[in-house]
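Please describe the entry underneath.
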Amino acid sequence: MTNESYTMVQTEFADPAPLRAPPPDKRLVVSIHDVSPTFALPIAMLAERIEAILGGPRFAMLVVPDHWGSARIDQSPAFVRRLRDWADAGVEMFLHGWFHRDTSAHRVGASALKARYMTAGEGEFLGLDAVEAELRMRAGRDMVEQAIGRPVAGFIAPAWLYGPGAHAALKACDFALAEDHFRVWQPRTGEIVARGPVVTWASRSPARTASSLAVAAIARTMPDWMPTMRVAVHPGDVTKESLLTSIDRTLRTLAERRTVSRYADLVAEPVPLAMAA
């Protein structure tokens, strides 16, 4: 996400998911990305919306310490209070990069393609060496933990993009959990605790929006063969009514069929070897 003004879409919340017990072996994990003073209003809107649908603060927040170098959370006391209130209520807090902006010079190859086409210049940890990645991880963790008054739940790179330096730094920093677009794992051991793509939405262009709506529709109707489904929302999602409607439908549908869970719940249930292969 870039710094930009937002035109908020006001819609009614979907009804909460029914209070019947879904299968315990089918999980739903939900997260809000790009949590920063820059996006304080859309983040609050999404948090209220998700809590209403899931029946409580059963989701995670991915916190950016200094979004694009202009929004340090330690310089926003009001936002820090909100973060701590959410954490006290049970919201899991992950470190989500440092700047959330990619300033690395990528040469030709896979990294250059990812940096250019998979993210709007926000794959911060894709091109960092291990030393710089570790410095940002440690500084970011200290800032977020000071804000929330407890350890972070883990580290998730902006745009889910990691380079070799970021992977090395994850181990050095001993984060409990990390995730990319296709898996959740424990950096200290490499053990995969969940597999499968993240259902997310895109607001940057009509084509991306249409594609993300189609993927979400498939996720709502596909058989429940995956043990864990992850859903992620972003501040820009509040700018389009079609995205908010899809988010509501997707969360409600999946919450009816799955147990709403925390990332920490995944640690006790690692992916079977046959699936992890």
Observations:
- The longest helix spans residues 130-148.
- Strands lie at 27-35, 60-63, 92-95, 154-155, 178-179, 183-186, 191-195, 198-199, 228-233, 259-260.
